[in-house]
Design a protein that fits this description.
With 324 residues, the protein is mainly alpha-helical. It is built from 14 helices and two strands. Strands 1-2 form a two-stranded antiparallel sheet. The model has no long low-confidence stretch (mean pLDDT 90).
Length: 324
């Protein structure tokens, strides 16, 4: 109940922002910050709670994005129907990748590399086939209306993304308190011990992959509706995967609010570096790397674990006294 109260308060505060300001700059900041939160929460379901580090979550993002665009332009579906369809197909791709990976016992760096390889394969395919627009990509026609999910202001996109983030938060809260969540965390901590007490690691990890992929697919569909364009590099490139995993790791893996804090902090940092070093391409990725190294060294539990960290604990860890 405590988690639900906090989520309810979060929704009330964020939902009120478009009512308090009509500034496009602020609304765009809130929208993109929520988008980053959704990416981080999606990765957190599999990487934080399941312990299965993925380097290729753009695979699911790009699938959801392309389904959103193709369903409208080639199948004639309404965007409100295309969005859940994209989530379902992204989840199906996640089920396939998870089944192939976990059936052969891939975990750790092997699983991370497999997801990265699948994302690259999908990028190459999307560059080659005509229904994705090949290397040119797809551009949605502008038909501004709520029924077409193309709102007249950023306020509509803020509320839409807030709904998707709320869904991710409720899913994460369920993982924290449900039997399935306990099984998933048991597999993360010690897969052999979990199997010994009757947990099926294959099934648990597969379900977590499907849930994580569905959330990433929703983020991809949202991206297409906002920017009205998608190409193979945007869809399946490494930037989205990096943004998702870094946000969760920096904020605190396996927590409810850690990915939100990490994504928000990195988003603010990215905006500052973009304004200060706008002439240097790729500087945000350098900053991400530096922040990630510092967090791993000094705050292994992320920002969410900051209240339980002390310098003495870090010194003990460095001297072999254990993880704080």
């Amino acid at each position: 109940m405590k988690d639900l109260r906090h989520i309810f308060l979060f929704v009330l505060v964020v939902a009120a922002i478009p009512l308090l300001t009509s500034s496009g700059v602020w609304l765009n900041f809130v929208m993109t910050a929520l988008y980053a939160c959704l990416l981080a929460q999606a990765w957190n379901v599999l990487g934080g709670f399941g312990g299965q580090f993925s380097f290729g979550h753009a695979l699911f993002f790009g699938t959801g994005a392309y389904v959103q665009a193709i369903a409208q332009m080639q199948w004639g579906l309404n965007p409100w129907v295309a969005l859940p369809l994209g989530m379902v197909i992204a989840a199906a791709v996640g089920a396939f990748v998870g089944a192939v990976s976990f059936r052969y016992g891939l975990k750790g760096s092997y699983f991370a590399l497999v997801t990265l390889a699948f994302a690259e394969v999908f990028r190459i395919v999307a560059t080659s086939v005509p229904f994705t627009g090949a290397g040119v990509g797809l551009m949605l026609p502008l038909r501004e209306s709520t029924a077409n999910m193309q709102f007249g202001s950023r306020a509509g996109f803020v509320w839409l993304m807030l709904g998707l983030v709320t869904l991710a938060l409720l899913l994460t809260a369920w993982l924290r308190h449900s039997r399935f969540g306990a099984c998933l965390q048991a597999v993360r901590d010690n897969e052999d011990a979990a199997r010994a007490v009757g947990v099926d690691p294959f099934q648990v990890k597969l379900v977590a992959t499907v849930l994580s992929a569905a959330l990433m697919g929703a983020a991809g569909g949202f991206y297409v509706q906002v920017f009205q364009y998608i190409d193979p590099t945007i869809a399946y490139g490494p930037h989205t995967s990096v943004e998702a995993l870094v946000g969760a790791i920096v904020g605190g893996m396996g927590t409810l609010w850690g990915p939100v804090l990490g994504a928000l902090g990195l988003h603010i940092l990215a905006d500052l570096t973009r304004n200060l070093f706008g002439q240097l391409p790729g500087i945000n990725m350098v900053i991400y790397g530096v922040v990630l190294v510092l967090i791993v060294m000094f705050l292994p539990r992320g920002i969410a674990g900051l209240g339980t960290w002390t310098p003495l604990q870090w010194l003990r860890r460095q001297s072999g006294g254990g993880r704080p």
